[in-house]
Amino acid sequence: MIVTTGNKGDKDRSDCFVSLKLTKSGGIQIDLQSKVKSLYGDSIVLLCKEVLKFFNLKHVILKIEDKGALPFVLAARLEAAIKKQIKTDKEFLLEMLPENINTSSFDQHRITRLYLPGNTPSLMINAGIHKPDGIILDLEDAVAVDKKNEARFLVRNALRNLNFMGVERMVRINQIPAGLEDLEYIIPHNVNLVLVPKCESADQLHKVNQRIVAIQKKSKMINPVWLMPIIESAMGVIKAFEIAQAADNVVAIAIGLEDYTADLGVNRTNEGIESLFARCQIINACKAVGIQAIDSVFSSVDDIEALKENVHKSKALGFEGMGCIHPRQIKVIRDNFAPNEKEIDNAKKIVIAFIKATEEGLGVVSLGSKMIDAPIVKRAQRIIDLAVSLGKLDINWKNQTNE
Amino acid sequence: MNKEEKLVVNAIGRKVPTRVNGETVVPFKGVGQHRPIGNKFGQRISSCIDFPNDGNKLVSSLKESLIKAGLKDGMTISTHHHFRNGDLVANEIFDIAAELGVKNLIWFPSASFECHSSLIKYLEDGTIHHIEGSMNGQLGRFASEGKMKGVGVLRSHGGRYQAVQDGEIQIDIAVIAAPTADFFGNANGVDGPAACGLLGFALADSQYADKVIVVTDNLVPFPCLPWQIQGNYVDYVVKVDTIGIPEKIVSGTTEITKSPDRLLLAEMTAKFCEYAGIIKDGFSFQAGAGGTALSIGIYFSEMLKKKGMKARFARGGSNKYLVDMLNEGLVEYILDGQTFDLDGVKSMRDNPKHVNTSPFTSYNYHGKGNFAQLVDVVILGATEVDVNFNANVVTHSDGVLLHGIGGWQNCLFAKCTILPVPLFRDRIPVIRDEVTTICGPGELIDVIITERGIAINPLRQDLIEKLKNSSLPIRTIQELKNEAEKICGVPIKQKFDDKIVAVVKWVDGTIIDAIRKVCPQ
Fold this sequence. Notes:
The structure holds 2 protein chains of 2 kinds.
Chain A: E1 2-6, E2 16-22, E3 28-34, H1 37-54, E4 60-66, H2 71-85, E5 112-117, H3 121-125, E6 134-138, H4 148-161, E7 168-172, H5 178-186, E8 193-196, H6 202-219, E9 226-231, H7 234-238, H8 240-244, E10 252-255, H9 257-264, H10 276-289, E11 292-295, H11 304-317, E12 321-324, H12 328-337, H13 341-359, E13 365-367, E14 370-372, H14 374-389, H15 397-402
Parallel strand pairs in A: 3-4, 5-6, 5-12, 6-7, 7-8, 8-9, 9-10, 10-11, 11-12
Antiparallel strand pairs in A: 1-2, 2-4, 13-14
Chain B: E1 7-9, E2 15-17, E3 19-20, E4 23-24, E5 58-59, H1 62-68, E6 76-79, H2 89-99, E7 105-109, H3 120-125, E8 128-131, H4 137-144, E9 152-154, H5 157-165, E10 173-178, E11 180-181, E12 187-188, H6 203-208, E13 211-216, E14 236-239, H7 246-249, H8 260-275, E15 284-287, H9 291-307, E16 311-315, H10 320-327, E17 331-336, H11 342-350, E18 354-356, H12 359-362, E19 377-379, E20 384-386, E21 391-392, H13 408-411, E22 417-420, E23 424-425, E24 428-429, E25 431-432, E26 447-450, E27 453-456, H14 461-466, E28 474-475, H15 477-488, E29 496-505, E30 511-518
């Protein structure tokens, strides 16, 4: 039986297509067709032999049609093919890059997170250079059903061996319960955050956490793993609060509007009136427990103006970030979620007025003819903090303003 | 197969031949080290006695004109590439030559395109001996596999003018496809169904060829104005039905790249220029026609608008985006070598500030200066760059001929030369220990911009100083190379056959590198 993995379409770059047949005799026969054969032919063959040896395979007919796949891709494709042929618990693991031993914090920004289809290496390789807050290796909707399994190996290898330049490394697993199996491929490899799609109950998150703990025990990788459930159904919206407080490691809830509107049986519109309730419900649930509310992706990649408008609405409602499905959305989403000049100026005035009033022992703070009370100061301080952390305001702004 | 008699190591460390196609050649001596002494090539004296009194030089067909021009074995036939991939004339010339049984011609185009792949059969049957000009696509592969009888000679646009002017190559018959012409031979590229903007690449051919044939599908009564090509140089004029495929000549508006990686490169390049203080009132720039280069123009526009500044001039290839800058007053003049779209053609026709140039004015190294050296910043591409900043534009990393040099070498003389390139392309590292073919010496290449870091040539301490406190990721070229190899792996050194299939000339006519036959894999 010949098994195949990988891709070889005209548009598939930085990928390879592997055909593997086990034989009784004849040794290892490797037929390599590669556009980089003159540069890397020897090292590709060497890597293949190493993987085959690792799995104790001595007689195979292996064909590799390569379009510039990096080693982490080649190894993933070959291992996936081997595991279609034999049953084994062994894993061929590449070096864990020092850049990928990072941890992330509960409340760090997640304004921009770039979705990367889990079985498409070409889109992963340069993802880090666009500096999103996080990348999401997607094992769910972006991967065809018959490619789900091989995508796990690719995502695992990418988590270890592809430099994402320090951004938060997230994986969207499949819907629970199927998605629990995905965890085996990501938790030991220092994934920072797991997105749990189509979440409808706290129980699902408990199951995820139980599995994570079990895997961590085995693998000794004990860095924190945050959860971001995605609510994509009427039931999920009703359970938003339960989901938000399901566990200590839930850092945010995202909303998925394509599935949600389908569940309601309505069209998704740009105005979004049909999902207003759901969005407000989720934002409220998140704020109630002090976690981040993340808006749905905006699918018209070419329409930057509409995206901008969408972000403004999203921000006005209380969302703190949005998924990106193309690198070019990153800057737009970040810039428009960030406080604008006017907001920053205003916040600066409020904070300074407050400090002054406190210094002078005044009980009442006012700015011009406006009274300023505690929540206004709190909001202003949050805008300042966000502006500082996004590099839009110098951390020593107070001194600079006084000069 | 005639073995090249003798190889020497030239000033940039490459083994190059001293004779090419039977002629003695000079190995590269270093930038600015070769100063030939002597006179330019002198053409035969023509006399009006030998031309029609009424100025009507029309002949009935291209074939007749070629016969009248004395087409015979071993001649050098030149064509221009203003029609890019829509050219119909070059192929027809060699169809006729083959029909007449003429052999061993040298084709001397200003560049070749995929549409010329059908000439392979004439390279095989001996009609064409070799090509002196760019060899791309299938022609490139054919030559790289060592199947061409003679050795290919690659020159820059400026180098082509220099070679003709200096008499390094003598054109027997120049065939100038002209979108509009009159019976006297005056011709231009701004009008007619095959309008391509200008005919600058055919200037040297008109001035120095022994016989000049103008072929047009849009014959107008005398005078044809503007006369970008002057009829006084022309022997014969031929009217045919079609000389080119318009949609392939001007490929419509070239689009700004949508590739996020390339957009990032463009943005970094524009930012670099800003930090380096290059973008200021009255500056000048040149960027190519690729998607990345177009985007750099857009970023420049934004910066100029914000600062309320304008550029004094930009050098084309022009396209819609550059024309928009001209019309918006962000750049005062376009000095244009070729037009890439209809907006460019129209602007050149209608706007006196959009000026046509030639390789003589722009690029020729054996002149009393040229425009390229006056440009403040030029942004170019490359297939590979080495740790000494030497760069390659003509071959793939597997050694197969891929591109012509174009104006690339000539542009290196700008005040600041920037190459924005990806660190690697589908596992092929772009920053290498050694490039496959050297087309430009590193001492003329100032900045390499990749998505993962920017390397400034140590010769440019002034730039290093200016960028010291910028937010841009400044690295050494060695660091960039190491990073490429960390991601892609260390490439094996390529093996080549000894046989030389082509040579690369430097702007002064010396041999900077030789291209060897690729080994079958």
